[in-house]
Amino acid sequence: MLKIEDVSMTFNENTPDEKKALQRINLELEKGEFVTVIGSNGAGKSTLMNVISGSLIPDVGDVYINDQNVVHLPEYKRSKMIGRVFQDPMAGTAPSMTIEENLAMAYARDKKRKLVPGVNKKRKDHFREYLETLNLGLEDRLNAKVGFLSGGERQALSLLMATFTEPYILLLDEHTAALDPSRAELITKITKDVVAKFGLTTMMVTHNMQQALDLGDRLFMMDKGQIIFDIKGEEKQNLTIKNLLDEFQRIRGKQIESDRAVLG
Amino acid sequence: MLIALFGAVESGVIYAIMALGVYLSFRVLDFPDLTVDGSFVTGAGISAILIVNGTSPVIATLIGALAGFIAGCLTGLLHTAGKINALLAGILMMIALYSINLRFMGQPTVSLLNESTLISQIQSAWASTGIDTGLNAVLQALGADRVPTTWGIFIVMTVLTVVIKFLLDYFLKTEIGLAIRATGDNQKMIRSLSANTNFLIIVGIGLSNALVALSGALVGQLGGFANLNMGIGMIVIGLASVIIGEALFGKKTITRVTLAVILGAIVYRIVVTLALRVDFLESSDLKLITAVLVIAALVTPKVLQARREKKRRLAKRAALVEQKEREASA
Ligand SMILES: Nc1ncnc2c1ncn2[C@@H]1O[C@H](COP(=O)(O)OP(=O)(O)OP(=O)(O)O)[C@@H](O)[C@H]1O
Ligand SMILES: [Mg+2]
Known about the structure:
A: 264 residues, B: two-stranded antiparallel sheet, binds magnesium ion, Putative ABC transport system permease protein (chain B), ABC_transp_permease (chain B)
């Protein structure tokens, strides 16, 4: 479903600010696979997401979605196939427009936009049904401006908008990070439910290790632009936070040793 | 006085089309587009020269609007493909249009005095209906000593402006229209929903300037001439109309704002007409009057809001004091 081959990305090459954000990333996700991605600040997680979504073009390497090489497809075309939720609850919705208008824009994602009304009776009923699944009472506020919603409500709406057209790929970049613990938990639960419901191929970045362990069926650990740890299946289910930290120490420790050897 | 006011409303209805264009760029797309000063003249100039050369006024007017559309698209292109700052893209287009307009017009002023224009056609078609006599009889019965020479222009232009308003309302609620609004609201979001924001900006600014040029073409025909400088300061007049309209008539929904913008354009004309009748103000003070109007429309709502808030807090405080007294005495 999603394949990434030899993707590298360097910012500010040949300057003192040079930053190798991605270094020869290779990965392949099966249809319906749900990967959580962890890693320290600056590890390259967001860059990887942006390369997949097309907001960034990598220096080298290819990105395949459904066997189609999309690396040169502009972001707006690629987003027919990709749903995204950002960290900032403000980023995923249009604040001065109503809930139903926002949903209508998401609804048109995988179609050609036409000169027909974005909201009609049938779609409204549709939207109401979807909103009911959130259990936030938003179905009674279809004509409310999204700018008046709380961060948690907005994020739930963004999540719905990113998923209900059943995109090939769902990218979540720390989408619960800006919320209070109870809201974060709610969004996590909704995430779990919609991903399961539509069987979406998902990549979710999080700094919450417990969340990374609880959700999904595969886990990547990233560091310095590389995926240093990839675990799935039963092994992943039995993983603990302590395992993860030990693993990080083990891999990075080895690397530090080998770096020393190289540098002599 | 009555005649002057009638004239103000009559031209206000036509300028309202320009104001709707400015609303589309400034408010909907959040794109401060200064092409307007140039594209207004493009509409007036191109339609005038076509009429002088024998094209039918309706077609000439439409071609004027089309030219405005193209100019707007070019501004959008400068901004999106050329990655030029929105303000600068508009300014560049505006000065380029100054030369282009002169090329088309051939001379700085094109007179339409002895031509058959859209306005004169409406006037003569209207005269044959005889509605004027009835309307004027009502006015005279109400005590008016002088009556307008024709109601036709006012009524036909009002119908045209209202039709444009409804088309715009409809358009902004279509799938494409929603995407255009979102482009002005949250570009990152609508791009992640597979909308080509560059294309939407180009089309949006194009449509905006088509409305501006259409208004210019009509204003030129109403005034009987097109002049190279008739667009100077037009953007400020458009903004004034939008801001006054929003301040006076609200901006809750699209349908409401577009109506507010039209009324704002009319109010602007009325205020200017009245101001120019004040003895110590001269017609050269027009720009100053406009600036003062815009400032007033921007500041007054905020002052009123702050006042209301203060009053509310004072009332709450008084209530609290009262409650405490009651508690103490109990
Ligand atoms: N546009 C850019 N220009 C220059 N450097 C960048 C740019 N975007 C990212 N970087 C750098 O690339 C590295 C990886 O950034 P990225 O945002 O992918 O990290 P991340 O893993 O998402 O971190 P976080 O957990 O803090 O979100 C960082 O060192 C960052 O400073
Ligand atoms: Mg990040």
